[in-house]
């Protein structure tokens, strides 16, 4: 991934936060037929330090886990908020007209070797942890134990576990850091007015990373 210095986000805790808030990841592996991409919700454990471990599951019918090139690195992409940035939001548009559209986004790339875990107890535990993480915001959170045991056992038998100990992380926060303060202010105002979930989240990221006077 190309990461200019002003868009680099090296802080592990910041990357981890995005990975937890946006757990649906694009998992890119190498198969006998070439690159293979699957979209899998993954739970992040902070151990081992400094980067942690990703755990999830896929259907047994998915050829991904059977057709892996042994020992090759897996790329896992976590997608944060993204938003179109209109040049009409830039104050410098009125000054010189030398402005163009762009796209802001935040993304984390995690690397490691994918391991397949064919163990029903491990899968059940992983499902319980992943479910609890994603249900935590609800007033009446659902738990795996809420469903009949024989029902969940049949479903668990149809999936297989995957685990990736993260060997490295790369974060790119392209959130208008290369713009002057007056343009950053205009981007924040413009995104706030769009009022879709990603635009509001992006406005917060631009504000958090801006070099505007306080």
What's the number of extended β-strand segments?
A: 7
User: What percent of residues are in strands?
Assistant: 25-35%
- What is the helix fraction of residues, given as a range? 25-40%
Structural class: alpha+beta
Q: Just give the CATH class.
A: Mainly Beta
Mean pLDDT: 94
Number of helices: 6
Major sheet details? 7 strands, antiparallel
CATH superfamily: Electron Transport, Fmn-binding Protein, Chain A
SSE layout and pairings?
Elements: H1 12-21, E1 24-31, E2 34-41, E3 43-45, E4 53-59, E5 74-85, H2 92-95, E6 102-117, H3 120-135, H4 149-157, E7 159-174, H5 181-194, H6 197-209
Antiparallel strand pairs: 1-2, 1-5, 3-4, 4-7, 5-6, 6-7
Key features?
about 210 residues; seven-stranded antiparallel β-sheet; 6 helices; single chain; alpha+beta; Pnp Oxidase, Chain A
Walkthrough of the structure:
The chain is an alpha+beta fold and 214 residues long. The protein has a single domain, classed as Pnp Oxidase, Chain A (Roll). It is built from six helices and seven strands, in the order H-E-E-E-E-E-H-E-H-H-E-H-H. It has a seven-stranded antiparallel β-sheet with strand order 2-1-5-6-7-4-3. Strand 1 and strand 2 form a beta hairpin. Helix 5 packs antiparallel against helix 6. The two termini are 33 Å apart.
């Amino acid at each position: 991934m190309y990461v200019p210095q002003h868009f680099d986000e090296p802080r592990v805790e910041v990357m981890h936060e995005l990975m937890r808030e946006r757990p649906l990841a694009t998992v890119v592996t190498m198969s006998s037929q070439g690159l293979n991409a699957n979209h899998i919700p993954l739970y992040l454990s902070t151990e081992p330090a400094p980067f942690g471990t990703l755990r999830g599951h896929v259907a047994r019918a998915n050829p991904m886990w059977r057709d892996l090139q042994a020992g090759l690195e897996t790329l896992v992409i976590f997608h944060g908020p993204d938003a179109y940035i209109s040049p009409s939001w830039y104050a410098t548009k009125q000054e010189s007209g030398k402005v163009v559209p762009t796209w802001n986004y935040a993304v984390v790339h995690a690397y490691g070797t994918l391991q397949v875990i064919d163990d029903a107890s491990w899968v059940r535990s992983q499902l319980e942890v992943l479910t609890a993480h994603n249900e935590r915001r609800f007033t009446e959170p659902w738990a795996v134990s809420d469903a009949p045991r024989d029902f969940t056992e049949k479903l668990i038998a149809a999936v297989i576990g995957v685990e990736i100990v993260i060997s490295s992380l790369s974060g790119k926060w392209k959130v208008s850091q290369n713009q002057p303060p007056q343009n950053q202010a205009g981007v924040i105002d413009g995104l706030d007015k769009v009022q879709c979930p990603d635009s509001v989240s992006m406005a917060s990221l631009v504000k958090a990373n801006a070099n505007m006077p306080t």
